[in-house]
């Protein structure tokens, strides 16, 4: 049994090594490079195991990685800190100005995409001779439809887009998890035959209010308390510690109260990031807080994207399901196109959604570790392997292909690019 320290040492060492190799040889964006190298290492180990079965290299590393509970590591560990780091850097004033677009994309877009992906995936499974219950197809739609905040924020670091559009994308990614997780919870209960009152209209509304509303309220309260505590002192070690305690405490409390932990830490991060620099933190403290959360963001992102690449060693995919998994990629892309276009047509009188942004928003719908974690959390059933393979195919395609080509799409489709970029 390997210790937590040994696992951490292995993952951090591999992250540093692959990051250095990527910087020297591949020159890919850091997060994408780690995923690609982790995936390449996984494939290489599989090939070596076939060529030299007596060495047991594949078996040994698989046993080690099998001790990493990907779902818990992402959902109950990394996610809170990554979301808080993203929310801290988001301009609350700009987000308030784009609130209509963000709310429309996060709520309406997620619902539309879930329905389209679920229906199309169900039809594709039947056409390929792998019949899948509609309820499980909709579960796949719910877990793959929300854009992943971690992956989106990592991708945007390497692409220059107009500030208003960047705020829309960041806001959508930070907030649509609450909607997606509620849908996922309800649909899993229904698909597993344990829905009961939770799958009724009233049950869904209650769950949404408790999860999303409760999470936002909790985040505002804890964020305000942290802000007032920081305002009362001028001691940067203590203020840095307050931000760390705020994230861990808010996320843990949200789980105890059955509220949305992701939305709670996003709300807390937005409030502290907006108010604390104005009148609660000295310039020295701001420098330390920003540096700390930048480092946390970079280190955790590195480990997460490496894990996504290495997870191939642990997951078990059936060869018969690979074609259906490949079909999931265009299905999700078409659903994303409709999801960002439909609100534009329905609310064109609002003036806050632009038609020329549709191609970019479609291609920028990156999925990541959260989708994989949700797929891995599914109860054991015949549908799980199908959903997991499709989820992994979409995640790899969006991060590698869409992530690497997003800059080119921006230059071709966006007019109001920041200075230095050309359309």
Strand content: under 5%
Shape: globular
Order of helices and strands: HHHHHHHHHHHHHHHHH
Low-confidence stretches: 417-423
Number of domains: 2
Helix/strand structural class: mainly alpha
How many E-type strands? 0
Radius of gyration: 21 Å
Architecture per CATH nomenclature, i.e. the level-2 architecture of the largest domain: Up-down Bundle
For the biggest sheet, the summary is: none
N- to C-terminal distance: 54 Å
Under CATH, the topology of the largest domain is which?
A: Na+/H+ antiporter like fold
Q: What multimeric state do the chains show?
A: single chain
Broad CATH class of the largest domain: Mainly Alpha
Instruction: Count the DSSP helices.
Output: 17
- Overall pLDDT, averaged? 85
Helical proportion?
over 70%
Walk me through this protein's architecture.
The protein is mainly alpha-helical and 423 residues long. It folds into 2 domains: 4-67, no CATH class; 71-414, Na+/H+ antiporter like fold (Up-down Bundle). It has helices at residues 4-26, 30-51, 57-65, 70-88, 92-97, 99-127, 134-144, 149-156, 163-191, 201-231, 236-256, 261-279, 283-310, 322-346, 358-363, 369-376, 382-413. The longest helix is centred in the C-terminal third of the chain and has 32 residues, at 382-413. The chain is globular and about 65 Å long. The model is unreliable at 417-423 (pLDDT under 50). Keywords: Antiport, Cell membrane, Ion transport, Membrane, Sodium, Sodium transport, Transmembrane, Transmembrane helix, Transport. It is a multi-pass membrane protein. This is Sodium:proton antiporter.
């Amino acid at each position: 049994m390997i210790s937590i320290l040994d696992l951490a040492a292995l993952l951090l060492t591999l992250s540093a090594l692959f990051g250095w190799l990527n910087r020297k040889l591949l020159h890919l964006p850091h997060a994408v490079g780690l995923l690609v190298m982790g995936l390449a290492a996984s494939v290489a180990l599989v090939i070596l195991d076939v060529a030299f079965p007596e060495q047991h290299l594949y078996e040994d590393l698989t046993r080690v990685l099998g001790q990493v509970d990907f779902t818990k590591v992402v959902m109950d560990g990394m996610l809170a800190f990554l979301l808080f780091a993203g929310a801290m850097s988001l301009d609350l004033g700009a987000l308030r100005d784009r609130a209509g677009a963000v709310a429309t994309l996060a709520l309406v877009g997620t619902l539309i995409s879930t329905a389209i992906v679920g229906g199309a995936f169900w039809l594709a499974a039947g056409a390929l001779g792998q019949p899948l219950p509609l309820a499980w197809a909709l579960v796949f739609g719910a877990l793959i439809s929300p854009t992943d905040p971690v992956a989106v924020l990592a991708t945007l670091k390497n692409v220059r887009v107009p500030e208003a559009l960047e705020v829309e994308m960041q806001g959508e990614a930070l907030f649509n998890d609450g909607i997606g997780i509620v849908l996922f919870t309800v649909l899993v209960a229904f698909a597993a035959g344990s829905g009961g009152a939770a799958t009724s209209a009233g049950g869904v509304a209650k769950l949404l209010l408790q999860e999303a509303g409760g999470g936002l309220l909790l985040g505002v309260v804890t964020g305000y308390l942290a802000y007032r505590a920081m305002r009362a002192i001028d001691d940067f070690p203590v203020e840095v510690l307050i931000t760390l305690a705020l994230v861990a405490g808010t996320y843990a409390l949200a789980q105890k109260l059955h509220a949305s932990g992701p939305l709670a830490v996003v709300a807390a991060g937005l409030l502290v990031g907006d108010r604390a620099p104005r009148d609660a933190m000295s310039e020295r403290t701001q420098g330390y807080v920003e540096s700390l959360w930048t480092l946390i963001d970079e280190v955790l992102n590195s480990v997460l994207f490496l894990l996504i690449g290495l997870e191939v060693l642990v997951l078990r995919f059936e060869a018969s399901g690979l074609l259906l998994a490949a079909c999931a990629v265009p299905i999700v892309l078409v659903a994303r196109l409709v999801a960002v276009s439909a609100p534009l047509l329905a609310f064109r009188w609002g003036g806050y959604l632009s038609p020329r942004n549709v191609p970019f928003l479609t291609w920028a719908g990156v999925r990541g570790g959260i989708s994989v974690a949700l797929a891995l959390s599914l109860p054991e059933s015949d549908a799980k392997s199908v959903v997991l393979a499709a989820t992994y195919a979409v995640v790899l395609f969006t991060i590698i292909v869409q992530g690497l080509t997003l800059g080119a799409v921006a230059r071709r489709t966006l007019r109001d690019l920041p200075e230095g970029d050309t359309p």
